[in-house]
Write a structure and sequence with these properties.
Elements (H helix, E strand, L loop, with lengths): L40 H8 L14 E2 L11 E3 L25 E3 L5 E3 L3 E6 L3 H4 L2 H11 L3 E3 L3 H4 L4 E3 L2 E4 L1 H13 L7 E5 L1 H6 L1 H9 L3 E5 L10 E4 L2 H9 L3 E3 L5 H8 L6 E4 L7 H13 L4 E6 L4 H13 L4 E5 L3 E2 L5 H6 L4 H17 L6 E5 L5 H10 L4 E5 L2 H19 L4 H4 L5 H4 L3 H8 L8 H23 L13 E3 L2 H7 L9 H9 L1
Parallel strand pairs: 5-6, 5-18, 6-9, 9-10, 10-14, 14-15, 15-17, 17-18
Antiparallel strand pairs: 1-16, 2-19, 3-4, 7-8, 11-13, 12-13
Helix pairs in contact: 3-5, 3-19, 11-13, 14-19, 15-19
Length: 526
């Protein structure tokens, strides 16, 4: 059995000629014919080279691995009970799912209030993030969910002012921060500014703290989609040259006269901008965390990716030593930007395995009395059952579930519906609900009552994200009620069971037929 699709994917706009007859080992057509135009990965690589490495079309898509991992969250089931209630009186008239509390607090002194146990990890300089930022920022702020501004935003902004190697003005970053803060309600949520190597050199986080009033910053080691730096495509020659001057790796070299000539002749239409990889060291990491606090950061986070187990152990240990407020660990397989497609499919530790190791490492330090940061996990979470399983898998240490592709999807759908409303071209499938945003978006009436006149300024992208979050919230409340858990802190690892022995061995979660054995014996023998 092959876990991977090779040599053809909708992500790279490639396909096999003999779609029904594929060699499992290579992904090539069983018969490769002389005269084929070459729509497979090999064929496209023969005439477009490195362009065929990345999901397309860049800037209007997100992407995720097609690999079928041996174990995923569907290999666990959620267990319910008919007995008692935790977090509420065991009374059928009180123990109803609308009473489930989904609020939590993270960070030292529990200083960040979160209305729903979600966070959007770093969405940075990619077009898909910028073009949907209104929906993401306003929708997250209205929902009381933290939102992270990802890497390279300042460096990619041609209007940023950089003096002696440090950013002094960055309108794109300022707009993103202020938009979230403008709609933030009752102190819930947080806007977080992330930094990679180039951002750190530019002093982006210091600028965000001192000039934009940002309280939470995030150190970035990596993400689940790839184990190299961030990448985007640039269609403008002058911008590509500006980014090279700012210290980015730009390919091909936009200052090379031969490259400029080839670009102007149309031999290629896009440059690649790449970020550098960081070099993690305990001493420098601890020093940087302390520097940021001295500069005024109230909260310091760490985001890491699907690296090998030793690097995960470093993340947990260093986060403990540095008293990090939130550690986010992103499993392999997904991305919101331009990650190399084969790397996205074939690199990194998959989610269940990574989160299981994360739980083990955190539990090991906790048993020694060491500080454990609040933890968020990410990597393909989309709906409420997955969210519940993720929180249970790492209870009591996992506090938030990170999601990026699904919130972007919700915001994009909301934005598209808004455009169709304005154009008077609402699809039949949607028109059956109405022809105004108040009629189509089911949460609109409640939001209108809450916001008053401000509701008119809420973009439909934000309505899409807000409404999606409310669906997740109700679904999560229902699942928690079935387990008789009426607040997040009562979720435990035995709220789920493994459906296969392999899932049980990997996670340490009991196999479903082994659950409750001692209690079963007491009941039957009593």
């Amino acid at each position: 059995m092959s876990f991977t699709k090779i040599n053809a994917s909708a992500a790279t706009l490639s396909k096999n000629r003999t779609e029904e007859s594929i060699v499992p080992l290579s992904g090539m057509c069983v018969t490769c014919v002389d005269g084929c135009i070459g729509m497979c990965e090999i064929g496209k690589s023969a005439y477009r080279g490195t362009e065929a490495m990345y999901p397309q079309p860049f800037g209007i898509i997100t992407s995720a691995s097609e690999k079928t991992y041996p174990v995923d969250l569907s290999h666990f089931t959620i267990l319910g009970t008919a007995v008692g209630a935790k977090g509420i009186e065991a009374d059928p008239d009180k123990a109803i799912f609308p009473s489930v509390r989904l609020e939590t607090k993270i960070g030292h002194a529990r200083g960040i209030k979160v209305k729903l146990p979600f966070i959007i990890p770093g969405l940075g300089s990619t077009n898909i993030a910028k073009n949907n930022w209104e929906g993401l920022a306003i929708g997250s702020a209205l929902s009381g969910v933290p939102l992270t501004i990802g890497e390279n935003v300042c460096g990619m902004d041609v209007d940023s002012k950089i003096v002696r190697g440090k950013v002094t003005y960055a309108p794109d970053l300022e707009w993103r921060v202020k938009l979230y803060k403008r709609w933030q309600a009752d102190g819930y949520g947080a806007i977080i500014v992330q930094a990679n190597v180039e951002d750190t050199r530019l002093g982006v986080q210091e600028y965000a703290i001192s000039s934009l009033g940002v309280e939470a910053v995030e150190l970035k080691w990596g993400q689940g989609a790839k184990d190299i730096g961030g990448e985007v495509k640039i269609k403008d020659l002058k911008k590509a040259q500006t980014l090279k001057k700012r210290g980015y790796v730009v390919l091909p070299d936009p200052t090379n006269p031969d490259v400029v000539k080839a670009f102007e002749h149309g031999s290629f239409k896009e440059f690649e901008r790449h970020s550098r990889i960081g070099m993690v060291e305990e001493e420098s990491f601890l020093k940087r965390a302390e520097e940021l606090r001295e500069k005024g950061a109230k909260y310091v986070f760490l985001k890491t990716g699907a690296y090998r187990p030793a690097d995960l152990a470093r993340a947990v240990k260093y986060a403990s030593l540095a008293k990090i407020d939130l550690l986010t660990v992103d499993g392999a397989g997904g991305g919101t930007g331009m990650s190399p497609w084969r790397m996205m499919n074939e690199w990194g530790v998959p989610g269940v395995e990574l989160w299981s190791l994360l739980y083990q490492y955190a539990d090991r330090l906790a048993k020694k009395g060491e500080y454990i940061p609040d933890i968020a996990v990410a990597g393909g979470f989309v709906l409420e059952d997955q969210i519940f399983k993720g929180l249970a898998l790492g209870a009591p240490y996992f506090k938030l579930i990170g999601m990026a592709r699904s919130p972007i999807a919700a915001a994009m759908v909301g934005k598209t519906i808004g455009k169709r409303i304005d154009e008077g071209q609402i699809p039949v499938y949607i028109e059956r609900f109405g022809n105004t945003k108040e009629e189509i978006f089911v949460t609109a009436s409640d939001l209108k009552k809450r916001l008053g006149k401000d509701f008119d300024n809420v973009p439909t992208g934000a309505l899409g994200l807000y409404t999606y979050y409310q669906r997740l919230a109700q679904g999560l409340r229902q699942l928690m009620t079935g387990n008789r858990k009426f607040a997040l802190e009562y979720i435990t690892r035995d709220d789920i069971a493994a459906l296969t022995k392999e899932a049980a061995d990997i996670s340490g979660i009991d196999y479903v037929l082994d659950v409750d054995r001692e209690e079963v014996d007491r009941i039957l023998e009593g």
